[in-house]
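wait is this the right file?? whatever heres the structure
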């Protein structure tokens, strides 16, 4: 998944054209308090639930490493086995394609003493028609953007003589990686329907387009954004072992020993380690789900899939809250005699909206009232607003705590194979994504769950650090550490 797709929860599915406000009469007058109480009970994540989730995550990881298709978790091999050391020197580029924009970036590296001397980046919006065009059209457009960006190179940026410019390519769509610099596109997602790419090597597609543009560059590393985040954070801190993206969608990757990956079948890396992309959004074992989750899943474009993602990531939290409020409005007259048509519109309430409501500290919760009115067309008094905030908190608390349990599951799996190498010393988890960055309550619940599961002493060794937009630099660094030179 990508920074633009996963890493920012400010993107949300367009709900389409809103219907004209029409009033529908509520069905019955039941008090809403029991609905909230029942919701809180179903969403509860006491320690035994968290422990089950962490253990199941570790077990699913093992099964996914044993054989392809062994569990819900794909456990994709990244082929990254040389990590940035800090000694890298020279000029490297990164290209990040993961949503409706792509980013191009250049970085001048100065080795151990100077590290990152300078960086520059640009963002380019992909025209809607190219998302439904041919492979050549899309990649020609990207190569053209890259060529225009490369033309502006100057100042502190200079390529050592006799070298070709090298790129780290962050491509955040489902890819079956075949080496550090090649991967077959399995299918387009996120609203893309480009013809002629599925089943092809995406690096070859880009290389051919660069040739057509007369651009003398080559891809040295193909990565997803989670792997890029890990590499970018590890460049500054050798203790980084895990990277997690929590934004519109979610994923996690970590550093694994190659001798504990049965499906590698004896292929060893020079360092004895590699990065595994867990694709943990597909995890589903033992999660506390409600009727609202089941209904939302059934109505989604991928029913029965990505259940963990649908419980913890930014694309879905607002929608779950909306579904709860709709039931409260219909069954318990939460917003009066009528239910606004807007409240019945899927995805009209976004995670940034529920985040903003939870930040309201005013006496009358004026911001909550304004958001409810502006976004869902309902009027509310103070007691109603308090209940709405409780609903938001219930859904966000569950999401944050389950994400924390997932992180502990990854650490547990690593610890089982390398006694005291994880919990016995400082271990850093690099976090990126708009949900983690912008939602303080979510962040707090995540960290509390990690502490509860590990205990106060052991959890002191686990450092959760925000690594903002690390995946672009990370991709350039992986191009450098896997450089042909």
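ok assuming it is, sequence goes like this
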């Amino acid at each position: 998944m990508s920074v633009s797709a996963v890493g920012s929860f400010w993107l949300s599915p367009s709900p389409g054209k809103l219907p004209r406000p029409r009033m529908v009469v509520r069905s019955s007058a039941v008090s809403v308090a029991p609905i909230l109480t029942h919701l809180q009970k179903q969403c509860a994540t006491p320690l035994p639930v968290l422990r089950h989730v962490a253990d199941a995550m570790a077990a699913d990881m093992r099964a996914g490493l044993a054989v392809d298709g062994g569990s819900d978790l794909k456990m994709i091999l990244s082929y990254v086995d040389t990590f940035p050391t800090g000694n890298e020197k020279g000029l490297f580029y990164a290209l990040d394609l993961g949503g409706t924009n792509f980013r191009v970036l250049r970085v001048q590296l100065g080795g151990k003493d100077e590290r990152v001397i300078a960086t520059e980046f640009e963002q380019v919006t992909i025209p809607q028609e190219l998302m439904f065009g041919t492979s050549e059209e899309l990649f020609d457009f990207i190569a053209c953007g890259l060529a225009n960006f490369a033309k502006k190179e100057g100042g502190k940026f200079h390529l050592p003589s006799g070298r070709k410019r090298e790129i780290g390519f962050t491509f955040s769509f489902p890819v079956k990686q075949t080496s550090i610099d090649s991967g077959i596109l399995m299918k387009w997602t996120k609203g893309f329907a480009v013809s002629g790419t599925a089943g092809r090597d995406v690096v070859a597609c880009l290389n051919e387009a660069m040739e057509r543009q007369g651009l003398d560059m080559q891809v040295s590393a193909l990565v997803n954004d989670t792997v890029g985040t890990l590499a970018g954070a590890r460049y500054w801190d050798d203790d980084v072992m895990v990277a997690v993206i929590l934004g519109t969608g979610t994923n996690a990757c970590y550093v694994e020993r190659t001798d504990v990956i049965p499906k590698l079948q004896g292929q060893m890396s020079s360092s004895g380690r590699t990065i595994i992309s867990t694709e943990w959004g597909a995890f589903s074992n033992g999660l506390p789900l409600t009727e609202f989750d089941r209904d939302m899943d059934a109505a989604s474009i991928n029913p029965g899939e990505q259940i963990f993602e649908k419980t913890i990531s930014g694309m879905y939290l607002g929608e779950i809250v909306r579904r709860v409020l709709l039931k409260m409005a219909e069954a318990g007259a939460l917003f009066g005699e009528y239910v606004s048509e807007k409240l019945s519109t899927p995805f009209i309430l976004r995670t940034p909206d529920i985040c903003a409501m939870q930040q309201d500290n005013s006496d009358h919760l004026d911001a909550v009232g304004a958001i409810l009115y502006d976004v869902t067309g309902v009027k509310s008094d103070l007691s109603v607003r308090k209940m709405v905030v409780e609903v938001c908190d219930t859904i966000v608390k569950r999401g944050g705590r389950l994400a924390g349990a997932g992180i502990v599951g990854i650490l547990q799996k690593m610890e089982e194979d390398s006694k005291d190498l994880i919990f016995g010393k400082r271990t850093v988890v690099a976090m990126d994504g708009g949900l983690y960055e912008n939602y303080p309550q979510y962040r707090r619940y995540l960290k509390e769950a990690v502490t509860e599961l590990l205990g106060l002493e052991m959890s002191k060794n686990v450092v959760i650090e925000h690594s903002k937009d690390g995946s672009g630099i990370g991709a350039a660094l992986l191009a450098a550490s896997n450089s042909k030179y």
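Confidence is low (pLDDT under 50) at residues 1-30. so i think its the right one actually
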